[in-house]
Amino acid sequence: MKTLKRFFGLVLLMSLIAACEVFQDLTPKFITVRMSGPVGQTVSIVYSKEFIAGVDEMDVTRVAIYRADTVLHTLPFDTIIDVRIERRLFLQAEVSAVDAVNVDVAIAADGRTLYDRAGDLFPDIPWRFLYQFNHSFTDVIEVEL
After folding, report:
1. Among 46, 133, 32, which residue's Cα sits nearest to residue 85?
2. What is the pLDDT of residues 84-108, one digit of tens each?
3. Does the predicted model carry a pTM greater than 0.85?
4. What string of DSSP letters covers 45-62?
5. pLDDT tens track for 18-31
6. How far is CA 69 from the centre of its chain?
7. How far is Cα 25 from Cα 10, in angstroms, rounded to an integer?
8. Where does residue 36 rank: exposed (0-12), middle (13-18), buried (19+ CB within 10 A)?
9. CB–CB of 20/62 below 8 Å?
10. Which of 34, 32, 45, 37 is nearest to 103 (CA)?
11. Are 60 and 118 contacting, i.e. CB atoms less than 8 angstroms apart?
């Protein structure tokens, strides 16, 4: 009988520990953006947390931006963005150079990797990244500024 009580006590304890992880808050607080490439190259980044985004019937993600900030960064750069209130972020990177620029981009929310890829930025063809907590979007993103 004692063994049975110990067994059920252990099962109850393990269930409580597992339940604590189920109720852990995964809402993002900060998003870290890192971009590296040719040292000294200038990249224009549009940051926005005030937008509406949705996927249409053609599987194209459409984004209407209401307020945004444009920042000229010199590669490499590393920035942290507070998303505790909005829980979303839109990024658009462009280069003004004549040639393509090879960059490596890493984006993480509270240490969890959201994006980690390398590729080329071409003049007049912006690279875009869209994040909204608990929503999924397509890779094809059209923007209304």
Report:
1. 133
2. 999 999 999 999 867 789 999 999 9
3. no
4. EEEEEEEEEEE-TTS-EE
5. 655 556 667 889 99
6. 17
7. 26
8. middle
9. no
10. 37
11. no
